[in-house]
Amino acid sequence: MSTPLPSFAASAAFDDAPGPVLVQPETRRLDGAVREAYVPPFAPPVRHGSLADLPFDNASAAPQAVVLSRRTEDGRWADVTATQFADQVLALAKGLIAEGLVPGDRIAIMARTTYEWTLLDFAAWAAGLVTVPVYPTSSVFQVRWILQDSGAVALVTETTGQAAALGPELDRLPDLRHMWVMEKDHLDRLVERGETVPDQEVAVRRGMLGPDTLATLIYTSGTTGRPKGCVLTHGNFFAEVDNAIELLYPIFKARSAQEVSVLLFLPMSHVFGRMVAVACVRARVRLGHAPSLKAEDLLPDLAGFRPTCLPAIPYMLEKIFNTARAKAEAGGRESSFDRAVSVAIRYGEAVEAKQTGTGSGPSRALRTARTFYDPLVYRRIRNAMGGRVRHAICGGSPLGRRLAAFYAGAGIEIYEGYGLTETTGAATVTPPLKPRLGTVGWPLPGTKVRIAADGEILLSGEQVLRGYWDPAAGGVTPAAPDGWLATGDIGSLDDEGYLTITGRKKELLITAGGKSVAPAPLENWLRSHPLISQCIVLGDNRPYISALITLDPDGITHWRQMNGKHPVPAELLVNDEELHHILQRAIDEANKLVSRPESIRRFAVLPVDFTEEAGHLTPSMKLRRGEILRDFAAEAEGLYGR
Questions:
Q1: Is 94 helix (H, G, I), strand (E, B) or coil?
Q2: Do the Cβ atoms of 423 and 8 come closer than 8 Å?
Q3: Are strands 229-233 and 214-219 parallel, antiparallel or unpaired?
Q4: What is the CA angle 609-611-616, rounded to 5?
Q5: How many CB atoms lie within 10 A of CB 225?
Q6: Same domain for 446 and 577?
Q7: Residue 158 and residue 240 in one domain
Q8: Are 567 and 589 in contact (CB under 8 A)?
Q9: How far is 331 from 236, CA to CA, in rounded Å?
Q10: Which three-class secondary structure state does DSSP give residue 70?
């Protein structure tokens, strides 16, 4: 795994766009293949201070700059200046101190993506505390485990229901001394309690913090086994966000702060959402929070906030696309929509070819066609996202070349990335004006990516965690003792250092014939189909590859309406011949991605969807394969029966 490699090739730079000069990755080869890629840091390392300083530094440097906006009860968005935010952070930090919390204490936060989450995060840091995110959808057992393992002395929940559910477990949580509920105005009471604490006490606690100080314990979502607490320092966050800000200058460095804004609707309990929030505060980019992903809630938030950038996961971008096509089909415009899609994809690919030096760019005819379809299709999609979106940061799983090209052609630049909780977010990301559709980009500046002999992706950089939390071992156990973090993912680097993710090492299927199959490419492709919600590919120790498929409720409703079918229970659809014919065509298309031994031979439609509540998905929408195969063992066996 740490085989010596030849020396680095000379790096090459280019400056064909405004913003910082991008540095092409330095690469190392072994046995004719690129096995390592590295981009030097764009931002100098932070040697002093902590994240707790950011609100106060902003207030000093640009007191009237709008750094956040919060949703008011009447549905409007109220701007929050740097001075106002710093004052609120200071007041809440004093309240936490007044309650007796001491530096190094862990405080857990269990809430949706709200303004209060970010406020509490920075207030806890200013008081010298360590924040522990808890998914609001977690089971009582999961919450208890995280609180026990982290030794949290305080818990802030969003709702009284969340607090009440934990009541029977309190006798098992001897360290937990405080519980506050946002909807009961407990944060306001904390502010009142802190009025007797001098401001200097917060300044002293901030002065005790440095880049090596523990900032947060983020527990992995746990696709297998029990979640582990990732120990992330203030320095880990600085290395991550400072280099991301410099690299993604179109998002974070517009000429005016009013030109850029980010609406965050991803979970703050996940490192991706957290990293985005910290980056926005660091760069003084206006940040808003949207707590609900339901269309009836999110669409008004998008329309009111009108972001220029959206952090997203592929599932959301797939949903937006499929919904737009369903509306076009319902209005009898599906042919026009499909032509517009084809134009956008060809346009996005032509732009990519020009930017990578392999083509001359969109032809005049293609530019004309794109201009024609912009008000008919592309603008409608942008309007559904608020009307001003020009950029999206996408992570969690591969988006796919086709959809990435479509969004690029429709006027939304996709910065696709790859990373882990252990890397404080992104370890690779698509560089501006240098896309390579279907990949997850280059190493984030300051990061090294290595491909081990067995294909596993190894990562090294200042954003890599200090280690895993292990109270039984007396503190922190190293995660990368040799300087390289083994990710458990498999992938490859191309000649220019772009990374492509193939799948999870533990999820590789070995057929009875000895063929190794990565299920992720097939699953990701099929999941993008409008009638498919989730897909799990099977075949370990089996004679061939098969799949279990769940149906997308919105897609199925639309399909029934367009085909004059009466509503029927889902269990009656699993054997519908017409539906099976459509799904078979989708599988035939997916099979074009792989060789014959890797292709799906048989599939079954399940009458229920995979959900987090049933234990089949993690909070970040990843499949829990063991639980799925346990609960649907009969259906899986049926795919191999005679």
A1: helix
A2: no
A3: antiparallel
A4: 100
A5: 8
A6: no
A7: yes
A8: no
A9: 50
A10: strand
> Shortest CA distance to 138 belongs to which of 117, 119, 152, 158?
158
Burial label for 164, CB within 10 Å (0-12, 13-18, 19+), is: exposed
Gap between the Cα atoms of 24 and 108, Å rounded:
41
Each residue's pLDDT tens digit, 66-107: 999 999 988 899 999 999 999 999 999 999 999 999 999 999
The pLDDT confidence band at residue 9, using thresholds 50, 70 and 90, is very low
Q: Do the strands 106-110 and 130-134 form a parallel or antiparallel pair, or are they unpaired? A: parallel
| pLDDT tens for each residue of 461-477 | 999 999 999 988 778 89
**For 96, what's the count of Cα atoms within 13 Å in the CB-facing half-sphere?**
33
Structure tokens at 306: 């009108």
Between these two residues, 571 and 492, which has the higher pLDDT value? 492
User: Cα separations (Å) of 285 from 18, 256, 308, 433?
Assistant: 19, 10, 10, 21
Residue 475 has φ and ψ, to the nearest 5°, of: 150, -115
Q: String of b and e for 493-517 (b: at least 16 CB within 10 Å)?
A: beebbbbbbbbbbebbbebeeeeeb
Instruction: Report the CATH number that the domain containing residue 215 is assigned in CATH.
Output: 3.40.50.12780
Strand partners, 232: 216
Instruction: For residues 163 and 267, state if they share a domain.
Output: yes
Cα 102 to Cα 120: distance, rounded to the nearest angstrom: 16
Residue 506, both tokens = 């533990």
Whole-prediction pTM value? 0.86
Torsion of CA 372, 376, 377, 381, to 10 degrees: 120
Residue 567: CATH number of its domain? 3.30.300.30
What residues have CB less than 8 Å from 435, skipping those under 6 apart? Answer: 351, 352, 355, 356, 404, 408, 413, 414
Distance from the Cα of residue 144 to its chain's centroid:
25
> CATH number for the domain including 459?
2.30.38.10
User: What span, in angstroms and rounded, lies between the C-alpha atoms of 145 and 147?
Assistant: 6
Burial class (CB in 10 A: 0-12, 13-18, 19+), 581: exposed
pLDDT of residue 114: 97
- Total structural domains in the chain? 3
Q: CA 254 to CA 139: how far, in whole Å?
A: 42
Q: Of all helices (H) and strands (E), which one includes residue 80?
A: strand 77-81
Containing domain of residue 477, as a range? 308-504
Give the integer Cα–Cα distance in Å for 552 and 562. 15
What is the pLDDT at residue 2? 37
